[in-house]
Amino acid sequence: SFTVTSEGCKVVLACGIRFYFPPGAVPEPLQIFFQTLAPDPQWVKLRHHDVLLSRVLELQPHGVQFQQEVQIWMPCASPPSLQHREVVVQTFSGQSWSDLSTRVEQKRKSKKHVAHCSVLHFSWFLVVSRLVQNECQVAAEGTLLFSSVDPSIKVTFPPGATTDTRSVKLQVLPVSAEELEDITADQGCRASPLLCLSQDSLLDFLRPVRIQLPLPPGVTGLNLDRSRLHLLHGDLEGQSWDDITSQVVLEFTHLYAVFEVSHFSWYWLWYTTKSYVGGIARKVYERLRLYQVNFIALQRKKDPEQVLLQCVPKHKVEAVLKRLQDRYRGPEPSDMVEMFEGEQFFAAFERGISIDADRPDCVDGRLAFIFYSHLKNMKEIYVTTPVDRKGQAVKGQVSFYRGEVPKGIPEDASRRRRGPDSLWLATLPIKLPQLKPCWAESSGALDGFSFPALNLGNAETGYLTQANLLSIARRLGADWQSLGLSLGLTYQQIERIGYNNREDLDKQILEMLFSWAQQNWEDPECVSRLVRALRESGRQDIAEEVEAVLELGRHKYREALGRLQLQRHSSAQGAATASL
């Protein structure tokens, strides 16, 4: 959190988010709370062809009205080609997400993109890339709406088409001949850009609306074979595509087709010799929403129990592996699979290997992910095994499975993903090497130390127990000195610990960590200080695991508190009934 006064201020968060509160934005000092959240598809509702570019930013207090607009700069992933797309910041208001006027800026040095918007109150915010949206207000006098992506696509509203002013939105999705041929394997297929029209009224127009679409590539009014041209109408979810060629009057110029409709949805011109065009269009539309991805599972070279799992778009795999090869090793990436934006999947460790922590993102022992094509679908976790590794290595595996089928995908795709076999995506090998006789069993890991049992933190913030500290110690290596300095130990203390245990690296780590814990266990900020020190010393992986353990502890505490309040309420009701 931070505090804003009537004088205004500029605020820069560690994650790169920036704020500007102009003088007079708040009449009196106001404490602002912030947090970034992983997007949950249950309430982050993406429309077709939307791409998520950021995590969710929550700003509180909700609903407080500022006297002047507050500016927000949100870092976001590099958007797809901006030729047919635009970047917008969306905010959650009431029951849905709405758009904010957004300007995209690119930092000169880092080349990173930032979405800039202004608001008068705080809520939840995120950044998406979507098809360029053109909008107009249609009154009784009529108007003309055309696409800024393809100005030849026009919608003409005649006078008297509506009695009440309504808002109409237009989006265009270009489809290249190469894409179409790759999906259909038919060189003869051609299609116009996809046109999506929507409005804020449930009523049809009173007079037909005139639409102009360009003819498919290579087709002109001179060489047109009308028997091969099909006008398709799709529902807003893209589930079904109907051939309405015989239901409308099609007019042709040298380059365009013109027709009239009274209600809005998707419209698509196809030029093909195929008979069942609707089925082909549904298949093509589905493929246009899919991403080709590979899974990778790598183990840290210095600590094979630390496993990095990631779902990577196919064209980024080589660059990602090159960036990680100095610190990680592992098998080749999985075979290519296809996934929708916002689709859930799970990672399950099998054949003698399991996750070495009780994590809030685990469901029935499986690690839960949500695929977003432009975000890092990556998690680093620690694994363990019940097998005694002193005598042998453990050869296990990690398998990836689909989760819930996203809403709004074609029924054919849903049917293909039902049943246990259809949920499997890929399997990659994981090997835990034979242990060297270096670490004692955790029960004896503190031999030679006289520290009493420790509980860092409190019930509300979450506890770190002695077992948690042992788990952290086991994952540290020669970098323990950097962590010690970040925790506030002096250089002389670090030197003494190293000298006293100069024959045993493990004891150096234990004495550093438990000495600090023993000195600071009464400090309510000691746990957050440990997480901050882990980040500062470059161990983001351990910091995230500690935060997961703390979040799980807080969750259990809140559940226990809720049960206690419920019991008290029930007891009070019982006593009142008895007195009557």
UniProtKB/TrEMBL annotation:
Principal cellular location given in the protein's record: membrane
Pfam families per UniProt: Death, Peptidase_S68, ZU5
Molecular-function GO terms, alphabetical: netrin receptor activity
Site (Cleavage): F122, S123, F264, S265
Any one GO biological process: DNA damage response
Active-site positions on this chain: H121, S123, H263, S265
Keyword presence, Nucleotide-binding: no
InterPro entries, A to Z: DEATH-like_dom_sf, Death_dom, Peptidase_S68_pidd, UNC5A-D, ZU5_dom
GO cellular component annotations of the record: plasma membrane
Protein name listed in UniProt: Netrin receptor UNC5
The species this protein was found in: Indicator maculatus
